[in-house]
Amino acid sequence: MYRLDEIEEIKFINHLISGFKKSPLQMNRIHTSDSEIIMLDGMDKLVAITTDGISEEIELNIFTDPYLIGWMVVLMNLSDLAAVGAEPIGLLLNQTFEKTVGSDFINALQLGISDACKSADTFILGGDTNFSSHFNFCATAIGLTNGKQYLSRIGMHEGDILYSTSRLGIGNAFAFSRIFVNGRNEIKYLPKPQFDKSKIISRFAASCIDSSDGLFASLDQLIRLNKSGITLFGEISLIICEDAKEICRMYDIPEWLMLAGPVGEYELIFSIPQNRENEFLKSAEKVNWQPVKLGIAVEKPELFIQNKSKLSSVNTAKIRNLSALLYSNPTQFLVELINIYEESF
Amino acid sequence: MYRLDEIEEIKFINHLISGFKKSPLQMNRIHTSDSEIIMLDGMDKLVAITTDGISEEIELNIFTDPYLIGWMVVLMNLSDLAAVGAEPIGLLLNQTFEKTVGSDFINALQLGISDACKSADTFILGGDTNFSSHFNFCATAIGLTNGKQYLSRIGMHEGDILYSTSRLGIGNAFAFSRIFVNGRNEIKYLPKPQFDKSKIISRFAASCIDSSDGLFASLDQLIRLNKSGITLFGEISLIICEDAKEICRMYDIPEWLMLAGPVGEYELIFSIPQNRENEFLKSAEKVNWQPVKLGIAVEKPELFIQNKSKLSSVNTAKIRNLSALLYSNPTQFLVELINIYEESF
Predict the structure, then answer these.
(1) Which of B66, B77, B183, B298 has most Cβ atoms within 10 angstroms of its Cβ?
(2) What torsion, rounded to 10 degrees, do the Cα atoms B256, B319, A99, B100 define?
(3) Residue B124 at interface with chain A, using a CB cutoff of 8 Å
(4) Which residues contact A278 (CB under 8 A, 6 or more apart)?
(5) At B222, which CATH number?
(6) Residue A228 domain boundaries
(7) pLDDT tens-digit map of A49-92
(8) Closest CA to B174 of B125, B244, B92, B274
(9) How many Å lie between the alpha carbon of B150 and the closest alpha carbon of chain A?
(10) Predicted-complex ipTM score
(11) How many CB pairs under 8 A join A and B?
């Protein structure tokens, strides 16, 4: 129960790395933090480094706008730095263009990259460019922590309060509108890096992860790693954003889907020990930030959600393992997800 | 004459980055070193970071063996660290697998990765895994220089002696055997990282670059960046390896092609000021290394080659710009290359 390798993706990655040796300079274990953490001799900070690319969302036509693709590849890497409490030094790009690529596509892509860097006061340090029959784009970000501490996914304890940097669901709302209603609802999706909030979170949080694969995937990962469960407080409508609510109303789908789907909003999800909560909230208030209270860590390692006065356990492993289906058959994916929803309540 | 942007690839990259701002922490300018060089506050070393992937060689079936692909993606990144005089901390992988990928392919690929890491006493630190309709694989390597110096492509002066870590041509010999004779000649191609030699080179060299795109591309880059030319000494057969010679004999092609083709051997190509040459050679001898003397830096910024007692200038821009043709029409590429050879002599 609640083993990491119940998740197909984790099992696959564990197989990939089974013959690799771990560096003695590496502080984190696999799966336990959003970036890799390296301790270098004589440095009073830790190096954080992470790599991430987009394939699936492009093939599924969720991301078609080259500006958005450029922005997202930078953002998803910066988000992994923010989730460990690091600030960026810069990024390297790895771009494989189609031989027939046009200059409009390239210009918009590079503008998205450049604007995403500016939004975090960071830089492209270098890269590699190739040509192929298929477009492929990934990046690597490097950063430094503030001192020798870093935010890890490990550390959540029973009684900790779970927070998100902002309301959730915009990624899944955007994906729904792109896949199922052909983008007719113009959802604005352009996640911002969370470095300012990450600095505050670093001072108080026991654990942190970004919501790059949607809320449930993040919570499931925290639950598996910490062997504690999470109970979400109250109504889902209190933690999802207006655009996500609007999509649910218009297409008569449960708001729950906006948290269960795998397209993330790149907020930070973190747990604060109860005895630090007041101090944390005061620090947030000083910068006019209202963190969104999600729930509480509980003993039994499952995700519990209140719906119409009933508390139900959600099969988050099944949900995460469904994601592969999204990219082959989105309609069946949605049907299966709604089935899990109906089983749960 | 001899401007960097005569080279199509460089012109394209300059366009890609035209809207990007340079980090104040970055020591190198674009195109001037094999890795990006970052100076961090309070560190007595420089961070070197580089990213590189394979697409073209896979699409052209030059690289088909998954073990070789795994090895090469690690090696080509490590080679860029060695070329700036850095030692590796580790690598991050970015792997996009086909949905139908088999476990034999994966196991061989990962073994190649792992063995290449072992050959340099380094580690995979992390990575990202995606699925798509097409295989794509790149990596990022991070390392540290020894002190605050790094090897740059800039610094070659007239009179400097040009060296290579070993004899050349194995990459083009391998590619020739794979493309034109269907791999019937079993050329062993598995370049090794040059960290031991790079340590010695760092102490003496005025400039350094790896031969990842073949010798002529490396020399052309040094010539353009330093606005000095290079005259190769004597016969080509003295600087190419036995396997390359054998391929030339068997298929009656000029040995010159083994230096002109774009598939590299990942040796280091470097210039030593004449007044340091004796000391350099003594240091090399101590570790039983015989560097291969290639030529001398001259005033006129062109590449000159001696052939049958005639000294000719080689149009290296034309050769480099031909490379795009290799990946669409290898036979025409070879014909064009032989035309350039015949024009030259």
Answers:
(1) B77
(2) 20
(3) yes
(4) none
(5) 3.90.650.10
(6) 161-344
(7) 999 999 889 988 999 999 999 999 999 999 999 999 999 999 99
(8) B244
(9) 16
(10) 0.96
(11) 194
